[in-house]
Amino acid sequence: MHPSMATITLDWLHIIALLGAVQGLILAGVLATRRHNRTANRLLAVAMVAFTIYLLTAVYHAAHLEAALPHFFGAGYPMPLLFGPLIYLYAVTASDRSRRLTWRDALHFLPFALTILWGLPIYLQSGPEKVTFFQALLRGDVPLMIRVVNPLKLVSGVAYCTATLLFLRHHRARIQDNYSSLERVNLQWLVRLAAAAAAAWLLAVVFNITQILEGPASDRGEDVITLAVALLVYLIGYMALRQQEIVRFDTDEHPVPMASAPAGPAPTAESRYERSGLSDREAAALKNALVAAMEKERPWQQSELTLADLAKRLSTTPHKLSEVLNSELNQTFYDFVNGYRVRDVQRRISEREARNLTILSLALDAGFASKSTFNDVFKKHTGKTPSAYRRSITL
């Protein structure tokens, strides 16, 4: 056994990092073999590998393995430049399973590639040369590449977390225009993770500013990133595998071609509210047909009702129906459909024959898919919780 390996000791932070690395490898294998939404899952698998290498690097330095395993030195250094792009592209592809990576997506990885190229002379050094280089770093002899790349990693982390949060905000608005139930299609867990990651990056920025004042021996900024990455691996391992489905419909993300539309590329999600050629008279007629169908046929009782389903029932396109909902009724599809469900529950609560039924059973009969969504939507529409509303009716 190499003498340096006989004295390996790890503190609690690096034990967490080591366990996170093991879980990251397992999760990467599981994600890479999942059959549905392969692009998104493979991106997340690559992210798990990047996280794992970074965490193993933290353990590597904590255990002082530089002399024993010199060629692993620097393996994790550029990995933070992958974290942001991979999670951002995962969010983009997870929200639309028809999305495929293009050559433009490769531009997100340009900083990572340039860092590898810039550091190539170091990576190609012999083992003893790498040990000497590392010892020089500890003495404060920091080369230009590291002085440039270190702040670049922080900027990349904060920028991509912000971009991911903005995209997910737009995604939520988009699915509310197409779905009446969001449980199986939202990425709320990823919103929380991106927000947590953004907070971790900002803390790392603060600690790296103090590192400038305290000298290169301070590594609190790296410790913050290490802990954040380990926690992200744990949380992603739990939440990503629970996401059974993201999209299943052909609607505004995949617009239905319209006979009146000019030739050219299909409209994007960003342009979906542009006028589709409906006259005011046609819009009013579609609005009346929509209201009549909702009241007579009660399609809102279907918990998985989508904009495309309702458009097909009305012999129109999702694009036109979405335009009517937004311009004529000033509502998203989600709020429009769930308004009918809430009013049905309100009506039945006031009926004597329904007083022996639980509120949840009334909600499920009305088309709600879960208790938590029902409670949130009901309070949004009535200003009261369902139980408080029932008490006010029975008083």
Structure at a glance:
With 395 residues, this protein is mainly alpha-helical. Helices cover 62% and strands 0% of the residues. It contains 16 helices and no strands.
Features:
Rhopdopsin 7-helix transmembrane proteins; mainly alpha; 395 residues
User: CATH first level of the largest domain: which class?
Assistant: Mainly Alpha
Poorly predicted sequence stretches spanning 5 or more consecutive residues: 1-6, 244-275
- As for the number of domains, it is 2
The level of helicity is: 55-70%
CATH architecture of the largest domain: Up-down Bundle
Class of secondary structure makeup: mainly alpha
Rg, rounded, reads 27 Å
The 3D shape can be described as: elongated
Can you offer a commentary on this structure?
This protein has helices at 12-32, 38-62, 80-94, 110-118, 120-123, 127-138, 144-176, 188-214, 220-239, 280-296, 307-313, 318-327, 333-349, 359-366, 371-382, 386-394. It is mostly helical and 395 residues long. The protein folds into 2 domains: 3-242, Rhopdopsin 7-helix transmembrane proteins; 276-394, Arc Repressor Mutant, subunit A (Orthogonal Bundle). Helix 1 packs antiparallel against helix 2 and helix 13 crosses helix 14 (359-366). Residues 1-6 and 244-275 have low confidence and may be disordered.
